[in-house]
Amino acid sequence: MTAATNTDRAAPHIPVLLDEVIGALAPQPGDVIVDATFGAGGYTRALLDAGATVHAFDRDPDAIKSGSAWPETGEQPPRLVLHPRRFSEMVEALSEAGVSQVDGVTMDIGVSSMQLDQAQRGFAFSSDGPLDMRMSQEGESAADFLNSAEADAIADVLYQYGEERQSRRVARAIVAARPLETTGDLARVVRKALGYRAEASSKRAPKDPATRSFQAVRIHVNAELDELHDGLSAAEQLLGEGGRLAVVSFHSLEDRIVKRYLRDAAASGGGSRHLPQLDQQPAIYRDVSKAVRAGKTELDRNPRSRSAVLRHAIRTDVTARKAA
What we know:
Layout: H1 3-10, H2 18-25, E1 32-35, H3 42-49, E2 53-57, H4 61-67, E3 80-83, H5 90-96, E4 102-108, H6 113-116, H7 142-148, H8 151-162, H9 167-176, H10 183-193, H11 198-201, H12 210-222, H13 224-238, E5 239-249, H14 252-266, E6 285-286, H15 296-301, E7 309-315
Parallel strand pairs: 1-2, 1-4, 2-3, 4-5
Antiparallel strand pairs: 5-7, 6-7
Helix pairs in contact: 1-3, 8-9, 8-12, 9-10, 10-12, 13-14
């Protein structure tokens, strides 16, 4: 039975670029691999089928609850260990589990299909639901932020994380429309502020402009870009020589962080070309890939893969840099 078929059986969603990610990780029986973003468990299922032991992280309690029913959690020793934590905490979590080094780390950055498909989680405006967007289901919600923050703070979030060029106008409209309670409320305010009408704009603007604002607020509420920075640093500390890193991102902000991180970590000397060679550090990663994107077959099967970008690399034996 193929990995893809097993994934269909064990999880409600097939992750994007599954074959490419598993190919980059090259799992072998007995390997210890971190799935930093467990979600519906698609990557984990394929890794387990290859004979690896997986330490899977997810701050979403629904994902952890679903994974706890998998038979591999009950094996002795368990081949699936679930960690209900942020993946930026993987060094501490694995230390507590008695693991100091791993053979692979994979990350599927951003919101999961499982979260997007549940209206009550408030991640999408395709169906109306509470304005929530919290991956962990704890802390400040999107509604809390939008109904209390100053217009300038909201505008900064929309511009920085959503690349919304008219962020000031949208932020003022949000403040004027308070309180916002549902995803539909936010989508309507953003569309009106930008003069968008779906029936009149379908040919000129295939993407709903509310998409940018939803992305921005979600990233802010979950501190996603900070989490990505910290997760890459944690993976660097955990991977042993020859260990493999595979990161899938879905928009330019995420991909830019991953690309720059790998470029700097794998540059000749691992430092700036403007510095004397004496001051440079050895490369942390080798064999860094170019951007890998979905092929036509996957695009036809899974439209979400259209924006997915995979970057992967192999760890050298150089000592990890200290975490920031």
